Amino acid sequence: MAKGVIGRRGFAAGLGGALAFGRPATARTRYVFDQAVGRLEFVARHLGVLSSTGRFEDFAAELLIDPDQPLTTHVEVTVRTAAVALAYPGAVDLLRSPAFFDVERFPEARFTGQATGEGTLARFPLAGDLTIRGITRPLRMEARLVDRKRDAALGRDVAEFSGGGTMKRSEFGMTAESAAISDEIRLVVRVRIII
Amino acid sequence: MALLVVLGFAIGLVMVALPLTQLLAKIIAYQVHKTIGLLVPPLVLWRLWLRARRGRPPEDPGLPAWQHSAARLGHAALYALLLVVPVLGYLSASTAPGQIETVMFLLVPIPHVLEPDEASYETLRAIHQVLAWSLVVLAAGHATVAVIHHRRGHSVLAHMLGR
Fold first, then answer.
1. CA of B16: which chain A residue's CA is closest?
2. Among residues B16, B2, B1, which one has the least CA distance to residue B89?
3. Closest Cα of chain B to A179: distance in Å?
4. Of A47, A51, A105, B84, which residue has the fewest beta carbons closer than 10 angstroms?
């Protein structure tokens, strides 16, 4: 249900958005969401044929978006690194360790992105900065409107967005297990918001 | 067949014991174990088909009837375990919450038929483990009895080896 539930904060922001829609062109709505309505996952490859998917169970995201003008979108996501989850025995301890997220020294990771002005609502790039272990590197992600449909019960539209990008973990000082875990890690964000 | 069982079993013990600090070895060990496991049932079915078509090797008439019955029972259990243990292994890999894919020979991806589910995984894995031990113990008994017959001058071992 994580993806299906609209959290209270998101819902309140959604209502604010409805008011804002009265003024076109400046109708950027602020949505705040977290793990209750969104998912934040990362996918690593092993030996080129296997993959494993982890997620963060505690994050806060702020999205400024006008569905009619997605190319002005701004997004900011803050992740609590200790909330890393991967359903494999011992994997969480490994990921929290100094060789990876080093959660004691770096309790947070962050992504800040801004639409570049290219693309359409269906698919548009976000250029931004990713900060992990105190190291900031530019990261380009691609946002997509996966689905938008009328929710009869709410009498409003519910939009499902996804974002994806690929980072190199070595750029953030995570070089351990380079034979077993790919350097490139795919990031995937999903969220459902009421618009 | 015996070689595959012994290898699969030994790698199974090692792969579980390997710490995550030896991640590469652990990943490879799991995939080799899965590859061996997936090879066994088709080979067993092929063997059963050959057995049905050509019949079993002749029984040694010098053995008492109870030993023939015990052998038949043991063989049936061996065949059943050779089929069931890999299937349970495959199902527990399917239901594992970690969702590690199965790729035969690190080349051929094998889809998982069940959804990840912690409770079913725990059950399936436990049965897989117990039956794998049963299979190895039974196979060791099977080999020991064959050697004992051989030492007593019976032709059982020679027939098992196709002579």
1. A89
2. B16
3. 7
4. A105
Residues of A in contact with B96 (CB under 8 A): 87
Backbone φ, ψ for residue A46 (5° rounding): -130, 130
Measured distance CA(A55)–CA(B105) in Å, rounded = 29
Q: Which tens digit of pLDDT belongs to each residue from A28-58?
A: 888 888 888 899 999 999 988 899 999 999 9
Q: Which residues of B touch A180 (CB under 8 A)?
A: 23-24, 26-27
Where in chain A are the domains?
8-194
Which of B20, B96, B106 is facing A91, going by the closest CB pair? Answer: B20
Q: Does CATH number 2.30.40.10 belong to domain A8-194?
A: no
Shortest Cα distance from B24 to chain A (angstroms)? Answer: 5
Give the angle B90-B113-A41 at the CA atoms, nearest 5°.
Answer: 100
Pairing mode of beta strands A74-80, A123-132: unpaired
- Percent of chain B whose predicted confidence (pLDDT) is above 90: 67
User: Which residue shows structure tokens 């076109």?
Assistant: A24
User: A41, A88, A182: best mutation site toward chain B, by most B Cβ within 10 Å?
Assistant: A88
- Kindly list the residues of chain A whose beta carbon comes within 8 Å of any beta carbon in chain B: 46-47, 49-53, 86-91, 93-94, 177, 179-181
Predicted ipTM > 0.85: no
B118: left (phi over 0), alpha (psi -120 to 50) or beta: alpha
Q: Which helix (H) or strand (E) holds A138?
A: strand A135-151
Contact A75, A63 (CB under 8 A): yes
Domains of chain B, by residue range, sit at 2-160
pTM of the model: 0.77
Transcribe B4-25 into DSSP letters.
HHHHHHHHHHHHHHS-GGGHHH
Q: How far is A180 from chain B (nearest CA, A)?
A: 5
Q: Which residue has the tokens 């350097």?
A: A183
**pLDDT tens sequence across B48-62:** 999 999 888 878 788
| From A87, A88, A179, residue closest to B24, measured CB to CB | A179
